[in-house]
Amino acid sequence: MEYMSNIDHLNLGGNTLTTFLTVLEETSVSRAAERLGVTQSAVSHTLEKLRGIFDDPLFVRVGLGIESTARARALQGSVESMGAGQAGTEETCCVWR
User: Fold this and answer.
1) How far apart are CA 66 and CA 61, in angstroms?
2) How many Cβ atoms sit within 10 Å of the Cβ of residue 10?
3) Do residues 97 and 37 make contact, with C-beta atoms less than 8 angstroms apart?
4) pLDDT tens, 36-59?
5) What 8-state DSSP symbol labels residue 38?
6) Is 69 domain-assigned?
7) Is 79 exposed, middle or buried (CB count within 10 Å of its CB: 0-12, 13-18, 19+)?
8) Within a 13 Å sphere around the CA of 20, how many CA atoms are in the beta-carbon half?
9) Rg of the Cα trace of the chain?
10) CB 71: neighbour CB atoms within 10 A?
11) Which end of the chain is more exposed for a tag (fewer CB within 10 A), N or C?
12) 10 Å Cβ neighbour count for 24?
């Protein structure tokens, strides 16, 4: 939780955290968007918000895909423990449709 201790949790809703975890799992913004049932643009905007909150790129381009940064990987456990990983993707993201 060290990385999350100084973060304003009110700026991190379930959709945002679920998007972060999905991009981590899929290692692709396009595949994450498809899985979440949202546009690629919506995922990109969410990642931009997270980059500002965590002051880290979180994901960097590698070849045709993306790779998570050390900070993103370190945040994964904290985000999962906040419950974002427990929420159903379909339920969590339906407000974007």
Assistant:
1) 4
2) 6
3) yes
4) 999 999 999 999 999 999 999 999
5) S
6) yes
7) buried
8) 30
9) 12
10) 13
11) C
12) 20
